[in-house]
């Protein structure tokens, strides 16, 4: 069975060594096998698979407790499929809400940039139009900042 060093695992998962150690320490993965003489960690393909899933979840803003639940559900397989679906759906909805909020922010910034661009060019009509668009966005912006 082929195993990987920590450095190789870092490269394959994008997770830095301190995170790999932390995930093992708190029980998200492992225990990780060690080389007999040096004590260095050696990651298996199964470890890599689990770490790649955790790296994806981490990148999507999923917290440690939900990562624990995800890992436990993976181990349970079909028995926990409904709970796994619900966990992932909840995070998908959270990300959709964040996208909506950020879309409002992008619209606001674009319109403010257009307003300042019009001022820079001395185009009073374009400035007035941009100012109106900014004012139209303000209610949604204020709601997104709460």
TrEMBL record:
Keywords: DNA-binding. SUPFAM superfamilies: Putative DNA-binding domain. InterPro entries: DNA-bd_dom_put_sf, MerR-type_HTH_dom, MerR_fam. It comes from the Bacteria. SMART domains: HTH_MERR (SM00422). It holds the Pfam family MerR_1. Residues 3-73 form the HTH merR-type domain. This is MerR family transcriptional regulator. It comes from Amnibacterium endophyticum.
